[in-house]
Amino acid sequence: MQHPRDILHGAQVRTPLPVCDHYCGVESLMVKSLALQAEMTAEFGACVFDVTLDCEDGAAIGDEKNHANRVVALVNQAQMATKNVGNDKAPRIAVRVHPVDHPAFEQDVDIIVGGAAAGLCHVMIPKVETRLDVDRAVQRVDQAAVRSGRRDPLPLHVLLESPAAVHQAFDIASHPRVQSLSFGLMDFVSSHGGVIPASAMGVDAAPDGDSLDQFSHPLVRRAKLEISAACHAHGKVPAHCVVTEFKDVALLQSAARQAARAFGYTRMWSIHPAQIRPILLAFSPAAQEIELAANIMQAGGQSDWAPISFDGKLHDRASYRYFWQVLQRAHQTGCLLPASAAAYFLDSAPTPCH
What integer pLDDT is reported at residue 272 of this predicted model? Predict the structure, then answer.
């Protein structure tokens, strides 16, 4: 029987990234986050969240160079630790550098990519306005990567934070080096000169939900949908913005579920370790959906992916693609898979943990 990834063309357009991207910029928190990633990798049997070391918001003004050097040391230490224990699950560590028009941008890239390119899974470029900004970033990143000896291109993630950037979302998403688009909620709201209320930077926790929060304000909602649509049009990964109410787990999970199910996001930022597991859970398919997907995929495979009738409903390659993606998402979030579905991921099957 042929593997779904080989037969269901179009079902694997996007790079399968972890559904959670955890940001940290203070040195002590960066160390703790990398340690937590290693612990959860051992628990899941796979790396289930990225750690992005933050130079844009993490570096104090005037200390950008020292901060970049600290990031290099942490990336290289994490890589060495993995090799020393014989772990075949490499850590996923990224860096957010300063914007391309910031005086520290080139210094960040030269130091970090030049000193630790082999240990990076991607570079996040903030405040991207146009495709030309991506071109500029690619040129500098590639120059530094070559000097460091990295052979494969380093993926770029970009952060869209203004109305003008959102207007260019489809063009930016079409860039071949862009792997993911993220939405910068706070800067987007503040760029509107006060006409968007502060409530749109948060999540409405009231039972009646009558305030304009980040999911209901028309301008913010439109921006989120535009970025998500641009990513899906070009096979890129849409990453949802942070939820600042990090102490309210129920609120975070509600926001994450809305991002995943109503807005089409397949990844979300975390800014506190307590947010990681709730994000994984919110982006996981329901148990009954996993079971249905496994059964349909098994029946489809046994029919050599010809159309079938299952529980009185017609299924063909269009629905097979959907249910294969359900299983992929379940695998990425550490869900327990039925044996028939787990066999598809024998090379990297994670253990259940929710």
Answer: 94
Residue 177 is given by DSSP the state: T
DSSP 201: G
Q: What's the confidence (pLDDT) of residue 353?
A: 33
Joined tokens for residue 290: 């996993």
What CA–CA distance (Å, rounded) separates 149 from 117?
8
Tokens of 74: 């942490």
* Both structure tokens of 188: 């987007």
Q: Identify the segments of the chain with pLDDT beneath 70.
A: 1, 9-15, 83-88, 207-209, 347-354
- CA 23 to CA 55: how far, in whole Å? 10
Residues 6 or more apart whose Cβ sits within 8 Å of residue 128: 99, 100, 134, 137, 158, 159, 160, 165, 172
| Residue owning tokens 């079902």 | 11
- The pLDDT, as a whole number, for residue 11 is 46
* Dist CA 275 CA 269 (whole Å): 9
Q: Which three-class secondary structure state does DSSP give residue 229?
A: helix
Write out the E strands in the chain.
20-24, 49-54, 93-96, 120-125, 156-160, 178-183, 237-240, 267-270, 308-310, 313-315
Residue from 204, 205, 203, 196 nearest 223 by CA: 196
Q: How far apart are CA 308 and CA 314, in angstroms?
A: 6
Contact predicate 286/238, CB 8 Å: no
pLDDT per residue over 56-85, tens digit each?
999 999 999 999 999 999 999 998 877 655
Domains of the chain: 4-283 (3.20.20.60), 287-345 (no CATH)
Q: State the amino acid at position 241 in one-letter form.
A: C
DSSP 105-171: HHHHHHHHHHHHGGGEEEEEE-S--SHHHHHHHHHHHHHHHHHHT--SPPPEEEEE-SHHHHHTHHH
CB contact at 8 A, 271 and 247: no
Q: What is the pLDDT of residue 335?
A: 78
